Description:
The chain is α/β, with parallel strands linked by helices. It has helices at about 15-20, 35-40, 55-65, 90-120, 140-160, 180-185, 195-210, 215-225, 240-250, 255-265; strands at about 5-10, 25-30, 45-50, 75, 85, 125-130, 165-170, 185, 235-240.
Amino acid sequence: MKKIIVITGANSGIGKKCAEILSKEYKIYGTTFGDDEKNNLKTKYNLIPCDITNDKSVDVFFKKILSKENRIDVLINCAGYGLGGGVEDTSIEEARHQFEVNFFGTHRIVKNVLPIMRKQKFGRIITISSLASEVIIPFQSFYSTSKMALTGMMGAIRSECKKFGIDSTTVHPGDVKSKFTINRKVAKACTKGTPYYNECMNSINTMKKDERAGLDPNDVAKFVCNLVDQRNLKPKYFIEPKYKFLMFAKRFMSDSLIEKIVEKMYLP
C-alpha cells in the first residue's frame, strides 16, 4: 500500500524536489499557490492551492485530501521564505507575516494533521528548519527567530506525540542554491542613506554569495526523502559536515566568541 505524503511548499525549491522524488513510489499531495489543474497536468503528484496563512484555505486543503484518502502517513513541511533587515527597520506587519508563514502557517498544517495521525496511531512529521535557528545572523533576525520558534514547536511535538506513534524531526540544511535567494524580502524601511543600510546589504549579499555556492536542492531533498523510511528519527539533522562540526564545536564556545565569529562573517 502506497504511503500518503503531504508536502507544503511543493511547487518550488526543496518541497518540489521532494515531491518529484517521492512521487515515484508514494502518493503525494502538495500545497501550491498556482492553478492545481494546470500544474497537475505537468506533474505526477497532486498540487492543491493552499494559503497556509489562512485557516479556511488550510481546512479546504485537508478536506480535499480526506475526500480521497483515509490516512496521512507523512507530513513534510517545506513552506517558508526569508526576510532581511534590521530590527528597527522591520515593521510589525513585515515581522508578523514572516512568523505567519514560517511558524503559524506550519502550526495550522500540523494542527490538521495531528488528529489524523493520532487516530491512526502512526505518522511522521519532517520539518525544514534552518541553521539560522541555531546561529543568529545579523539582519535576518525575524527569519532566525521564526525558525527558532518552529524548531522549538517541533521538538515539543516530538515529546508530546510519541505515545501516539507519531515521530518528528527538523532538518537544518545551511546554504542551498534555490529560488529562496531571489525570493528573500528586505524590510521596506531599509533604504539608501538610512543608518543600517550598508551593514544590512553587506550581510544580505554575504548570504546570497554563500547560498549560490551552497547545496543543490536536489541533494537536500534526497536527504529529506531518506528520512521517510528511516527506522528512528533523531531530533535534528544537519546535512553538511562543516555544519555538523560547527554544532559540535558550538558546545565548547562562549556566546561572546560565537558572536565575534558571526559578526566577522557578516558585518563589514
